[in-house]
Give the backbone structure.
Amino acid sequence: MTAREEAYTAALQAAVTHARSWLASVPDRPIPPRRGADELAKAFGEIPDGPSDPAAAIDLLAEVVDDGLMAMASGRFFGWVIGGTLPAALAADWLVTAWDQNAGMRTPTPGVVATEEAAGRWLLDLLGLPDRCAVGFVTGATMANFTGLAAAREQVLADAGWDVGQRGLNGAPPVTVLVGAERHDTVDVALRYLGLGAPTVVPADDQGRIRADALAERLTTRQGTGPAIVCLQAGNLHSGAFDPFTEAIAVAHQHGAWVHIDGAFGLWAGASPTHRHLVEGYQDADSWATDAHKTLNVPFDCGIAIVAKPAPLRRAFGVHGDYLIPDAAGDPLDRVPEMSRRARGVPVWAALQSLGRTGVTGLVDGLVGHAQAIAAGIAEVDGVEVLNEVVFTQVCFTVGGEERTRAVMQHLLAEGVTWMSGSRWAGHQIIRVSVSNWSTDEQDVAMSVAAVRRAVEATG
């Protein structure tokens, strides 16, 4: 064995040992980290004067970081909307790092690009979206929204006779962007990135669904008939509710607007015959965004941008360089903001290959079932009120007034058996449960409900 081979072997073996130890600890360890970032930063000390053994560096890393790890992979982690990692997706992600391929062009790296293209085709099939769509793999839902909205900006301005690629935004016809009152903040961030400014807000109902009648009114009464984009939502951050796609998309298209759907976690309802009714009509939109790290449970970072018409996407992101090797079929760099990136779509392929169609359906249905079971269980605890219709994977509840709700949340976090995050929704201080992990099971549900019961009793 050469010295190079020995160095890789020892370092990778150390990583495997520590990774297996971490994964084995997740089901039983307290979910919160034991030490904070400031304390851990001091433990690293100063940069060493000279080289060190690669395996020893990995050992030190694992030793220092362990106390600062949150057990996000636990079946009882319900904070934010963060999935776990399926075994095949984790292993594929390791291979992606080992292969170290730049997935920007088809010709130089055909292996990983072909894998991503297969994953894209399978995704469109599973979700029931048009097979003509372009699929791009980005860092997360924020950049997936950015990518879809960049294509939207490109097309609506082109329709108005303005070439934004050549002329920029100075002097361009103003673009009206309409959003629901309870859209996710990443939509607003993407609009800022794109120079489109603050959107026009459309009222929502008590579950956070955009009102199609109010959307029609806003589109009718807006100034002029210039370019317009409508942003809809598949899976409200708090309630999990879905916008009325059939009605809203029809209204938007009647007014010539591009329709973008933010489906960070909820787009996957389309992969389940049981829950597909939640996204009925969404296939008629113009672009969609989701995050495979959420419902599909692949490693960070893996957002997915889907655009019905590839042309505006290519105009927005396509790049030419004499040193590049373009492919006649188009390249991945034509569909995303990055020229250079890791092959983050490969773990998506591995997840889909390992699950199959029925496995993806079972994953989605299982997450929804566990959310509904948690809601039913905590609703039986004296003082708990579940505020939302649990149609997907989100549960929001209060315990008496704001002060007690916060006290219950703090008790839960301090105990560490389960992690549920606090938020504000519909004028209430709430505790939010986001069921996103493939490994959550009935025991996790029972333990989490029991933890809520203990917290309520302890703060009563």
Observations:
- The chain has a mean pLDDT of 96.
- The first strand starts at residue 134 and ends at 138.
- The two ends are 65 Å apart (CA to CA).
